Amino acid sequence: MNRYLKYFTIILAAVSFASCAERPLDTNSQIIDSQSRKNEFDRWIEKNYVDPYNIEFKYRMERNESDLNYWLVPAEYDKSIQMAKLMLFLCIEPYDDVTGSKEFIRSYYPKMIHLIGSAAYNNNNTMVLGTAEGGLKITMYYVNSIQLDPEYLNYYYFKTMHHEFTHILNQTKPYSTDFDMISGPDYVADSWSDAWDRQDGVAQKNGFISTYASKEAGEDFAELLSIYVTHTEEYWNNMLNNAGESGASKINAKFDIVYNYMLNSWNIDLDELRDNIHDRQGRIGELDLENL
Ligand SMILES: [Zn+2]
Fold this sequence. Notes:
This protein is an alpha/beta fold. It folds into 2 domains: 8-32 and 40-147, no CATH class; 173-286, Collagenase (Catalytic Domain), CATH 3.40.390. The protein has helices spanning 3-9, 40-53, 77-99, 103-108, 150-172, 178-182, 200-205, 217-230, 233-266, 270-281; strands at residues 56-58, 112-115, 120-121, 127-128, 130-133, 137-140. It has a 4-stranded mixed beta sheet. The protein has a two-stranded antiparallel sheet with strand order 3-4. The two termini are 30 Å apart. The structure holds zinc ion. The site of zinc ion has 5 residues, from α5 and α8.
């Protein structure tokens, strides 16, 4: 990943400001119009999202579903198909496997996924990759920049999906307030993007899995879960080594609460979920992402 991209994306967040974007509109406009007829992709969505999970998957940009504080570009049709298939394969079906049915996603997953082609750029050199609103809707940005590399996919999309879904689970069943005490005075609120020399490694030495985790306890919780399930055991152990004794002990103490919360409140073993996701990441090449 080049340094420019890294600089922009050290910071993943659900914050809002204003800004600009850079791509021209697709010649096949993906902005919805009331005359739109169902195409092949619409029928695929009905079969794979709406019928089994009761989730609406909106790839046409809808003005009243979009954040008008940003200059946004619609998701391209082909990229939307890739995202729909990958999201199902890497973010939704793993939960079906570990819970034993589609019921968990059907009951708790947001009822709408909305795709946006561009990122939402902030004035402070950060960009929004995803937002979750009131448990009902997840918006995923930056879809037109999709690349089929697992690390890239996790970094820009799927870590964000797991992060946002964690917020929704937390809103449904709260976690132990013991969690909030572990890094209690160390949370830095909106200064997170400038704290820790803007480096996750520095944040980790201070007990935070990422810079964004230091914003507040709820974000810390969602970062721990989403980074855990999208990374390998080797990555996690290296991270703990580099965090040093003090950083690692805080991260471990908080992660124990995250792990037990998922097991006791949702009957989901995060190790099993992580293994399932990794197995699937190794099989992305088997997916037909060009045809429906
Ligand atoms: Zn969050």
